[in-house]
Write a structure and sequence with these properties.
Mean pLDDT: 84
Low-confidence stretches: 1-27
CATH superfamily: Outer membrane efflux proteins (OEP)
Helix content: over 70%
Radius of gyration: 36 Å
Structural class: alpha+beta
Strand order of the largest sheet: 2-3-5-6
Number of helices: 10
CATH class: Mainly Alpha
Shape: elongated
CATH topology: Outer membrane efflux proteins (OEP)
Amino acid sequence: MKFLNIKSGSCWLLTLVLLALCSSAVRAQTTISLDSAEAQTLRRHPRLRQSDREIEEQRALKRGSFAPANPDFLFSAPTGEMWAPGVVQTIDLPNVYRRQRQVADAGISLAERNRDVSRASVLRDTRLAYLSLQFAEAQVGQLTYQDSLFRVLRLATERLFTAGEVTSLQRISTDAEARQVTVLLQQATADQQAAQRRLGLLLGRPAEALATSTDLSRTGQELAQTGTALLGGLPTDDSTALVRSPTLAAATQNVALSQSGISLVRARRTPALTVGYQNQAFENSALRYRFQFGVSVPVWFWTYRSQLQAATARSQAAGYQLQTQRLELSTQYQQAVADTRKFAVSLAYYEQTGLPQSRAIISQSQRLFRAGEVSYLQLILSLNQAFAIQNTYLTTIREYRQALIELNYLQGE
């Protein structure tokens, strides 16, 4: 009974100290929700600002799609008596300018699709960074409890060893277990700090000690419901599931841009009109300046042929890129679906069986050890088994959420 009182008092003292430390740490941190993190990232991330500037660039290029050649200002002496200024302007047929405008429209659409890709990537990175911080916080909390328990156990073992009630091997084993948990807690704390900085960099607040608003270890049931609803509504066909993928939409628009480039090259192979206004008479003529008209003939056929070959090759490359993107996205989608289903089964097990058993193991092993019904070795093994189950449960939640994040990203959500 004396051992129980010492152990209970030490446990309460350590608990109060840990609570005080945790409360001071919480006061120094800035709590942020996932929705707020997503909104701040979309507002501040430089990748999205870059996408906006690229769209502005394409819109500016569209305003210059009607781009005739520069006029030729020249001096000539048509009569051989004097030099006179003149101007000659070459103008393409309207079809050329129409094709140039279509290319500009396709360029704007591609820039907009690329912005959608950037937005989806930024959201995925933010969600993964937020999840990493949640996982690190849950691990720190789990290992803090585990560390406090082994600290108390080590203190009690030291007293029992002094009283001759435990062996030296038991004392060394307890100390080794306690120190190992302390090292794991230090590593988890370092991971938490790294996750805070990673999320802070995405939010443009790298110096703040951020904290999540939701405990990952308490989201298992809500996650199971979300995953079940998502799996129940997934299309069976990959092409249907990926129809809103921003990456696939960008690759499709790139094909359209390359095809409009072919049309533009073909339009430029047609003749152009030449208009001039020059002095074509003697000095004493009543009407010296007259208009002149002509046709610019594309006789350098090899230039246009090489341009057409290049545009065709570019279009074919864009088509193969689209096929590659579709293949890669389909593979990633199938893997994400498989991971989601796999972790859904694992989460259901831990929610219904594994986690309650781990709690029961921790409670009953301590009770039976105090009552002398289990040995010291059985107590250590039982505690390690229970903590391993709880750590695997946290890992399962993290991996399940990662699979859902990837699945939503591939579907453009």
